[in-house]
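Schema walkthrough. Field components (list of strings):
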Amino acid sequence: GENVEQHPSTLSVQEGDSAVIKCTYSDSASNYFPWYKQELGKGPQLIIDIRSNVGEKKDQRIAVTLNKTAKHFSLHITETQPEDSAVYFCAASDREGAQKLVFGQGTRLTINP
Amino acid sequence: DAGITQSPRHKVTETGTPVTLRCHQTENHRYMYWYRQDPGHGLRLIHYSYGVKDTDKGEVSDGYSVSRSKTEDFLLTLESATSSQTSVYFCAIRPASTDTQYFGPGTRLTVL
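Field assembly_structure (string):
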């Protein structure tokens, strides 16, 4: 089955700097890669996703890149703000049927003012 | 919150007792999921449903059962709770027309 590895587990950056979180996956059949943000005491919330027919996707300060050959994808946050502090999860699945997501272990991002 | 509620939000129980967690949605989406979240493991799929009375196992289904007798409700049951089932449980729904899973607020379960 699919296995998703996420790094780093913790990341601390200065406000205004960029943050990058990386994930690798094992199953070449996976073709959907969402990123979730989880704030303390809440459920995960989708912030961006990418499908395997696209190499990069951007939404304001957030971007995701996908390298299918190497089986890795990354989340990029530019001009970080204090409200970006949270736990971020990557996930992978195929888009067929019920879409069973396999999550990475999570990255705790701290933005230092 | 995509119209998802989970109950109870917090529960403390003893080893060996049965526990049922409820996920309720207001928008009649076809797909519903139960995940557990533990430090160092991210979220792991327990069971999922693709319609009324249609359910299947996820990667960590041992010790759990589910039922979906109505579109809006997806129940997760721990027949005999163990300390290893202490966790935060999240329900998610997915509209059939999208790839996005929307998560509920979670239930924190402690098994003593």
